[in-house]
Please model this.
Amino acid sequence: MTRYENQTFNKKTLVVDGNRYISCTFVDCGLVFRGGDLPSFNRCTFTRTQIQLEGAARTTLNYLTVLNGQGLFTNVNGVIANVKKGTLPVSTRPESCDGQATGTNYAALLGVIGVFAAIFLLIGVGIWWGFIYHPEENLLAQTQPLYVEIPLDVMPALPENLALAYDDHLEGQSDILQTYGWVDDEESIAHIPIDEAMNMMLEDGLPSWQASGG
Model:
């Protein structure tokens, strides 16, 4: 509730719900009441001041309009007469609820979250242990494990200096592609430079080859 005392309001629209006005002057104002706490006017002066109803207060006015339209003229006029006399009973707002019943038990909420977190953690540990750390012990079928380790003794032996061996092999292949020589002397199979072979294919097409008879 806001208290106003000895103030002049000129050409303003004021929401008056719950306010208290003492010795105030209203000129060309609109007093808006929205159905909240009743305002208080003490020794105030009103000049060309309009009353405006909104919200719940407007709903009350609509209710009286409906009753008047249904023929309850006497009842509606009685309400208006009581308003003029100041004898209309005013209902009070219900008291606010106890703060203990507003659903703010954070300790219980944290407990439930902790339980769910522990369950998900156990599931994650089980997946890690069963399918990542020990996949060879989990079978898709009776004889089909998810993972099988290859014994080291069946793996091909690699040279100690793999890069050097690769370079030597690449150099040998390059020599074969750029030189003339025999592949199989007994079968009369020779190799020629790849550039010359490509030119011959472009000019004469693919060669036909037949193995020599014994």
Summary: Residues 3-85 form one domain. Helices lie at 55-69, 73-85, 106-133, 162-178, 194-204. The mean pLDDT is 77. The first helix runs from residue 55 to 69.
